[in-house]
Specification:
The protein is α/β, with parallel strands linked by helices. It has 13 helices and eleven strands. It is about 45% helix and about 15% strand. Helix 3 crosses helix 5. The longest helix is centred in the last third of the chain and has 20 residues.
């Protein structure tokens, strides 16, 4: 069964408001949720950065939804700590939690003062972290000396059913690599021809038959101008190629490059419309590509209208098409 989820953006809203948002989303008919895991926001205009892991416990207790989080173990987080945090959530809320792992961004990871590695080294480090996490979930005593170090770690509290580990990938190259080790794929919406390349690469790399989740970036508001203005104001710093987004270190740098972006350029990466039917068509197209979960991120600040209207008009239409 498909799931349409509400994406909780910790960069844009304080944790208390996000908690109210996911409760409202559950009441409106959303059947899943996901959240980001940042230390800094992408932009000073966004201006928030709540701690995802403590928030997840509250959100999962307050709603019946399944939840996922995007995490970058290896620098800001030691993989043994992530293994423990995920195992605790999965034990309390069986089969309702999944995690996606990626190589992260300097924006969040540079705060440790350690060197920001090359992409190849970040990939190697991530794979080490995934192996450590899985070994700990299996009850092994883990000692590992590599790009990350673990000594005599045993995870005593483990869930009966281990969470799935999705590979977070934006490019086809990363998706193909993730297909060899991840339980599934998490990627983001982008022009369809580019997204299809990511899907094909994941399947080619070993992901055939594995679940795929998509974070869909859109801007819905009561009128077109508000939707366009909200997308440009909140998300114009986020539309650059991934190799640029991973290297910048501070929100003001993202703000600086965002000054060069107009609304039309934002519209290439964000679905902007005040028509719920148009959004339903866009989402249906992604389901036809084989995604089993769509995590919908309304990038502007009017979350209540978005949740209510999508619950009344978009979700029923998608479920009807699926039936």
């Amino acid at each position: 069964m498909i799931k349409i989820g509400y994406h909780a953006s910790h960069e844009q809203f304080p944790p208390g408001q996000l908690l109210a948002n996911v409760q409202r989303a559950a009441q409106a008919g959303f059947t899943a949720a996901s959240c980001s895991d940042h230390f800094h926001p992408w932009s000073n205009r966004q201006g928030e950065s709540g701690f995802a892991w403590s928030w997840l416990g509250a959100a999962m207790q307050a709603t019946p939804l399944s939840f996922g989080v995007v995490n970058a173990p290896g620098q800001r987080y030691h993989p043994a700590i992530i293994a423990q945090a995920a195992a605790t959530l999965a034990e309390m809320f069986p089969e309702r939690f999944w995690m996606a792992v990626g190589t992260g961004q300097a924006l969040n990871e540079h705060i440790t003062g350690e060197k920001w590695p090359s992409k190849a080294d970040r990939n190697a480090r991530l794979k080490e972290c995934v192996d450590v996490i899985r070994a700990l979930w299996n009850g092994e005593c883990v000692t590992h000396k590599g790009l990350v170090t673990v000594e005599d770690a045993i995870l005593y509290t483990r869930p009966a059913v281990k969470p799935l580990i999705f590979g977070a990938a934006v490019t086809a190259k990363t998706a193909e690599w993730a297909g060899s080790w991840a339980d599934g794929l998490l990627t983001i919406s982008q022009p369809l021809e580019e997204l299809q390349k990511v899907v094909d690469a994941f399947r080619r790399g070993g992901g055939e038959g594995k679940p795929m989740h998509l974070k869909v970036q859109l801007s819905y508001a009561g009128d077109e101008e508000t939707a366009r203005r909200g997308a440009h104001e909140q998300w114009r710093s986020n539309i650059f190629p991934n190799n640029a987004l991973t290297e910048l270190r501070m929100p003001e740098q993202f703000d600086a490059i965002g000054e060069m972006v107009n609304v039309e350029e934002v519209g290439r990466m964000v679905h902007i419309s005040a028509d719920p039917g148009r959004h339903a068509d866009w989402l249906a197209g992604y389901l036809e590509m084989g995604f089993e979960q769509l995590m919908v991120h309304n990038v502007n600040l009017d979350q209540q209208r978005f949740i209510d209207v999508f619950g009344e008009r978009v979700l029923p239409e998608l479920l009807q098409k699926e039936a």
